[in-house]
Specification:
single chain, 279 residues, mainly alpha, Helix Hairpins
């Protein structure tokens, strides 16, 4: 066991967490922790963020509390790496975010008047464009991290483009355009493809499906739907519906791969109906 100068307590706070990570990264600290880099623990930061989201989705305060702690550890860990390089410390991170919040809430910390949430967001975007030196709408789109999950990035692209007047104004028209795009790819598969498994056709369909998914994001914008959340919950409902169907079949002494095409078609319809059924 490594000998460290550390005071054990019944209750710890952020200063203790900073000290613990500093000790873990020290010469006599943990052999694993002290050799980590931003790159080596990058995926850990992403995983912990998703686990926080799972705690939210599960409506579990206990899980959320634990996962927020794990996420906070990642923030402190990355900050400690930069502290060792002499670039910045944790108080700098706190100072930056405090100043950003004050600057972007002039209706709270200043004299700006707002009537509703839309005006708050409009002011936020204007201040953000100014502070980040974004001179045009293209800059705001290009500033969206390419590392975002595709649906989250698609949502943000459509929302920011709409502020420049690009994007449908009516959800019904947007849905009809989406239906036309889907019909187009169906016609392409039925009439235009010589070989459905060729590399050229795969690339073509990838581009067409990408366009369809982006149109879905634009429809979601109009319906005030979070695309990532919508697909996440739909996937959960699909899994639950699939499991129920398989258990019912197993109770009858059969397995899914033993069913006829007609039987599978009926089950498939029932599973997808379970995904889209109104609550």
């Amino acid at each position: 066991m490594f000998e460290t100068a550390f005071t054990f307590k019944n209750d710890y706070d952020i200063s203790d967490l900073l000290e613990i990570v500093k000790i873990l990264r020290s010469e006599n600290g943990c052999p694993w922790d002290k050799v980590q880099t931003h790159e080596s623990i990058r995926s850990d930061l992403i995983e912990e963020t998703y686990e926080v989201c799972e705690g939210i989705d599960n409506d579990s305060p206990e899980m959320l509390r634990e996962e927020l702690g794990d996420l906070l550890l990642q923030i402190v860990f990355h900050t400690q790496i930069e502290r060792e390089k002499g670039n910045f410390v944790f108080s700098d991170v706190c100072d930056d975010i405090c100043k950003k919040l004050i600057e972007r809430h002039p209706h709270v910390f200043g004299s700006v008047k707002v009537e509703n949430e839309d005006e708050v967001l409009k002011n936020w975007d204007a201040i953000k464009k100014k502070t980040k030196k974004q001179e045009n709408y293209s800059d705001t789109l290009e500033s969206i991290p390419k590392t975002f999950p595709a649906l989250i990035r698609g949502d943000k692209i459509c929302r920011r483009a709409s502020r420049a007047g690009i994007g449908e104004k009516d959800a019904v028209i947007a849905l009809k355009n989406l239906a036309d795009e889907i019909s187009s790819i169906a016609d392409s598969i039925e009439n235009g493809a010589d070989s459905s498994d060729s590399a050229d056709n795969t690339q073509l369909y990838q581009e067409k499906m990408g366009g369809i998914l982006l149109r879905v994001c634009d429809v979601d914008r109009l319906l005030k739907v979070d695309s990532e959340k919508a697909l996440t919950y739909a996937s959960q409902r699909f899994t639950k519906s699939f499991k129920a169907a398989e258990e019912q079949i197993s109770a009858g002494g059969r397995k899914l791969d033993e069913l006829s095409e007609e039987e599978l078609g009926g089950i498939q319809k029932r599973i997808f109906s379970g995904v889209t059924a109104s609550r």
